[in-house]
Amino acid sequence: MECALDAQSLISISLRKIHSSRTQRGGIKLHKNLLVSYVLRNARQLYLSERYAELYRRQQQQQQQQPPHHQHQHLAYAAPGMPASAADFGPLQLGGGGDAEAREPVARHQLHQLHQLHQLHLQQQLHQHQHPAPRGCAAAAAGAPAGGAGALSELPGCAALQPPHGAPHRGQPLEPLQPGPAPLPLPPPAPAALCQRDPRASAACSAPSAPPGAAPQAATAASPPASPAPASSPGFYRGAYPAPSDFGVHCSSQTTVLDLDTHVVTTVENGYLHQDCCASAHCPCCGQGAPGPGLASAAGCKRKYYPGQEEEDNDDEDAGDLGAEPPGGVPFAPCKRARFEDFCPDSSPDASNISNLISIFGSGFSGLVSRQPDSSEQPPPLNGQLCAKQALASLGAWTRAIVAF
Amino acid sequence: MIPGIGAFTRDTLWCFSQVKGTMETGTTEADIISTVEFNHTGELLATGDKGGRVVIFQREQESKNQVHRRGEYNVYSTFQSHEPEFDYLKSLEIEEKINKIRWLPQQNAAYFLLSTNDKTVKLWKVSERDKRPEGYNLKDEEGRLRDPATITTLRVPVLRPMDLMVEATPRRVFANAHTYHINSISVNSDYETYMSADDLRINLWNFEITNQSFNIVDIKPANMEELTEVITAAEFHPHHCNTFVYSSSKGTIRLCDMRASALCDRHTKFFEEPEDPSNRSFFSEIISSISDVKFSHSGRYIMTRDYLTVKVWDLNMENRPIETYQVHDYLRSKLCSLYENDCIFDKFECVWNGSDSVIMTGSYNNFFRMFDRNTKRDVTLEASRENSKPRAILKPRKVCVGGKRRKDEISVDSLDFSKKILHTAWHPSENIIAVAATNNLYIFQDKVN
């Protein structure tokens, strides 16, 4: 499908639609907003995967310049043919310009983290296969990448995914992951791959359960796996749907829901936005505090990638350590919150509109109807400087649909 | 051979018959027609508009003098069905737009129809009055009360003929049963009950009881954040009073049997076609959302309309439709811009003809399409004032998708997306169709030889 819009424009258009629906006669239309949220989710998947591809591409470039010993872990995951096509995606704006080289070590480090994360995804996926039940954060549908040229492979994430070879289930959304004709090595996970959330994670982990294969639910937060090819590519979009509202877990905000039927206001406490999740078993979020270094256990500490991080890392002391990471070990970085207050240097022209929308999302979609007083944990109220990029980075803001209803 | 052209074809030739509505280019939003429906005999044609008004047309008796003109439809009654309301509790304005009109089968001299806006269903009785009582004792001829002291004689009022007056009275108001926006109503074949469907729930009503309804489908999740689909349309089976279907925004149709359980959350049949992964795009979810579902008159098939296609399903086969018709596939590459201008959210309806052999649905640029299920031929016609000469034969239109544009073809980029035909109706037994184009209602008939 030819699409003149890139993912970011689509996101801003969609947010604008949702915003304007508040003032339309007849009240907010649930159906239309639900469909818009699907577009939002799709666009976000593409956006995030594009960024990942760019990251990977840079890392590949850097590898070619680096001495071999730095490459040992990464090459194992080099999916043939994949990164080269990432360049087809067009210019990606990572963290607002800046010196690309300075970010290389960061990129490489992050990729390394992602590989670790990917390992865990695989483990979880195995687990999922055996225990098909419950909750979100299923392992990556580490399906073989789409065969189309330029298509990124599926990027696993905290998603309710279907097994790559599984046929679409009845009653569930049909998103057949396209098994490639030749099985390719599993690609590294998406940059925004999330904390591993064990299916048995506690209910405190915000959004309630949905069976892994269940219909894609909250269009929320972070990356669902996607195998988005660039819009111009024929095999445009393949991929499983994101997990539901699991994404809400990793936001340090609250989600408030007003049930129009019972007029009950429910506040769902979400967990922190962790950079590093603890090892597989349990969700470190839900107020358990930042995991200590000791938690970098066998499964490894996963470091969550989000776009705003790169600039931080440039200033971060840890950046200096990245060049000498021990094999199998991962430097631990403390948890960081979503940086709502970060300014996007090249904020989009309609930043003010989007910031209004972000302020809606800041308290979940329920901002459409009611605003809860910000808790101390919540990020400060968003002001006009936010742009869509930050919206994308704020994993917790993407609660699906109209909790206002 | 283009269907509809040529004297030697057995295909139907469609001719312009009438157009209702103003010709002014500046349309007030209230005049936009939002629903069209023939009654069970085809004698009456009702339209609802965004201003909450219902206009009923009646077909005049065919006269022997003018055999070439089949009965024309003239205004029979006009009334304000719904008014704008305000829900103070939720601070929501409730639009008066008529979403659907459904006729009840005629059981006496009066006509009954259901009309609904987003929240309230009303049963209207439309009856004729052609006699009026005269000779009251307590009132004079102008209706002023008389002083009883001046009355010296008594007389019995008599009924005298008067000019025909058609009056519409609201007989029942079914309110406060829907939290979300009502999208469908459907009269049951038992003629005693009907259902109303909103985004998440379907309620069953008895015509006589307005303060109570049964909820028969509820797909609202426990946590609204888990919402993934909504109900988009619902209809009762034409003959089996226990069976109904409802469609979802995910492109699925569920058939439910009310005998199975009181709450029909579990479907009896589930119709879904696997998605073609090569067509995946940002907007796949939107274009797969079903905007209308209709049973065939026979009850054997259901027809669904999504953004780009019309599909016919056999009730006995759930895994895929038996027929798929492309309505305007040339729009597939334009989905981005259609999303920007909100056209991608347009909800087109679809209709069967009386014999279930032809299906019809609308498109943009005031085009509408007919698909003959037997011959597999299709035709695109246009509802426009230019073709408005009486009995003028409609010329088939063609959209050119690329390359050289032939004469009389229109290119995709020239289509006027503000002129959309969302609502159409087909006479239950004859080849008469009503097509709503914004604020105008076009009536076309097949050519009478």
Keywords:
A: 405 residues, mainly alpha, two-stranded antiparallel ribbon, 29% helix, disordered C terminus, B: 449 residues, Methylamine Dehydrogenase, Chain H, four-stranded antiparallel sheet, disordered N terminus, Immediate early response 5 like (chain A), IER (chain A), WD40/YVTN_repeat-like_dom_sf (chain B), Serine/threonine-protein phosphatase 2A 55 kDa regulatory subunit B (chain B), PP2A_PR55_CS (chain B)
Short description:
Chain B: Belongs to the phosphatase 2A regulatory subunit B family. The complex is a heterodimer of chains A (405) and B (449). Chain A has 405 residues and is mostly helical.
Question: How many strands of chain A?
Answer: 6
CATH homologous superfamily descriptor of the domain at 14-51 and 174-446 in chain B: YVTN repeat-like/Quinoprotein amine dehydrogenase
Measured by residues with Cβ under 8 Å of the partner chain's Cβ, the largest interface is: A-B, 59 and 51 residues
Report how far apart the termini of chain A are. Answer: 33 Å
What is the C-alpha radius of gyration of chain B, as a whole number of Å? Answer: 24 Å
Structural class of chain B: mainly beta
Strand order of the biggest β-sheet of chain A: 1-2
